[in-house]
Amino acid sequence: MKNKQALLQPFHKNGLELKNRIVMAPMTRSRADNSEFKPTESLHVPYYEQRASAGLIITEGAQVSEMAVGYVNTPGIYTKAQVEGWKKVTESVHKEGGKIFIQLWHVGRISHPDFHGDELPLAPSAVNPNSKSFTPQGFKDTVTPKEMTLEDIKTTINDFRQAAKNAVEAGFDGVEIHSSNGYLFHQFFNKCSNLRTDNYGGNMENRTRFFFEVLEAVKKEIPEQKIGVRFNPSMHKLHGITVDEETIPTFEYIIKKLNDYQLAYVHLSEPFTDVSIVPFAVKEIAKHFRSLYHGTLMINGGFTQKTGNEVIERGEADLVAFGKPFISNPDLVERFENNIALTDWNQNTFYTPGEKGYLDYEPVKLS
Fold first, then answer.
1. Mean pLDDT by 10-residue block, N- to C-terminus, for the chain (367 residues)?
2. Is 183 a catalytic residue?
3. Which of 13, 22, 146, 161 could form a disulfide with 217 if both were Cys (CB 3.0 to 4.6 A apart)?
4. What burial class does residue 35 get, using C-beta atoms within 10 Å of its C-beta: 0-12 exposed, 13-18 middle, 19+ buried?
5. In the CATH hierarchy, which fold is given to the domain comprising 2-349?
């Protein structure tokens, strides 16, 4: 009976074949080599290998270029050394029977000149998010970014295309375009951060143009059935992003248009904060967008074993992504399967160097 849980059922659709519906969500852990921004054999390989029983692993965000960096000790996918580092990760996950996508990331204005040789970070418009950037010297206030020129946009589109090509070389089963959480694409979507008056600003079609141009470029390097995309429609007051009267209609426009593609999945986040009194915000994201999207829908945001099973049983999502539970429970799938209590995570070690809080969570011993 324990195997009858919805989360533990295999999933097969549009070429995506998963042994269960439990996804390891992408999570920044700040363990990369900060001199070359590459994953390491001593940390990243065992970390992801330990969690290979997930139906799908989505890696931490991997920046697509040097200008995409915004956090200390985060890995990239734009140099040969980075590709070689990721090859060891994918090989170890595949050896354990797992599947793994890499999340392609550009933070946009959520960065600092310290990462870019004192050059300003890039953004759709010169609007300071008044947030923090995690630099080698600690958290620093963000600055007013440089408004991207058309040439900057063209270069960044190519950066994503090349990153997808590199991901294929590194052996990934697919890629996820990080279009969420207040980073570059989200900055283009939102009117508070996109003040442009050219073809990349103004109406919904223009504010989403950059995203769709990147998607078209990425699918030249990897089949669209191996591309996932991630959005956080009701994110409010984080990284300078707010919900206004056009926010949800903009995401509805995007999601409906994605029906024209044969994507691996659309990955949505439930609100990170209480938006019950925020005008125009949607509180139940999976329920709201399920009727608009005909492909595979993945949902994340504070789910438990119980609520994860329920959201699939209700038909509001096909896959559920778990973040923090996977940090402290590398054997999360086995614990769900055997109804074993979860180990608590230590938030103090989420972004600290070394093995502590990264590789030292022990799997449960099954009799």
1. 81 96 98 93 98 98 97 97 98 98 98 96 98 90 98 98 98 98 98 98 98 98 98 94 97 98 98 91 97 98 97 98 98 97 97 96 83
2. yes
3. 161
4. exposed
5. TIM Barrel (3.20.20)
